[in-house]
From TrEMBL:
Pfam families hit by this protein: Ribosomal_L21p
Compositionally biased intervals (Acidic residues): 65-85
Protein name per the record: Large ribosomal subunit protein bL21m
Family named by the database record: Belongs to the bacterial ribosomal protein bL21 family.
Superkingdom assignment: Eukaryota
Keywords in alphabetical order: Ribonucleoprotein, Ribosomal protein, RNA-binding, rRNA-binding
Amino acid sequence: MAHRRVLQTLIRLKTLTPLVQSLPRITQTQHFPPKLNVIFPNSTPINNTHFTITRHFSSNRSGDSEDYDDEDDEEEEMGESLDEDDVVSGFSGKREYTAEEKESEANAIGYKVVGPLERSDRVFKDYEPVFAVIQIGSHQFKVSNGDCVYAEKLKFCEVHDKIILNKVLMLGSPTQTLIGRPILPDATVHAVVEEHALDAKVIIFKKKRRKNYRRTKGHRQELTKIRITDIQGIEKPVAPVVPEKIKKAAKEKVEKDSWLSISIRNQMSAVEFSTYELRNRIIPRSMNHCGQG
């Protein structure tokens, strides 16, 4: 069979070669127009050479050229208008927000910028037994007066800006608890922006086995450090007022006890003083406890 196929191919080639040799040869040449010497009045001669080569594609139709011309004109007009706008407004890569846009986006996140912190402001107060559950973006925090919170970066506020966190979900104190549905409209949490920082790096590693595919990337989340200064919208318990006589009596008692312990220690050795402390402090308490039981 193999010999037969070889003989068939040889016969076929032998019959085709004279036909191919009898065909005329086709030569492709490109004719370019000659150089044109144009002489203008009152000017030097200029040599212009124009090469025009027309290309025809099988996918083009007769009406496509007009469409392409229209698209080119539109692109040129748009490019000119963009260039003019860039020159006039000083276009930069960052988007410029208006005051209304900034306020609306800040409200959507859950805060409002009041203004920069002044030296005369006394916003930091003593601790109060009140807590609040606030929402910043998609995260919720339980905070009290003086707490520090790291949230995702707040775009429209700078360091040392006073802000109001208006998405308060819950308020609590020793006397009452207020729960929002879902937000308490009259509750606000005041805070101060302390710094903008970056979180620790997180490594993202992807792999597809048996495909020689490995990708390693790192990410550091931008954060904003917020200090809580005040919680409003709930009744705060009033601290009991201690009279001056009680304060003075307690202070004299402490001084007397310290003087007595020093005088006794000077008269006793270390072992005797330790046994004395155990008798006066631990043994009476245990005896009283046993007596009560």
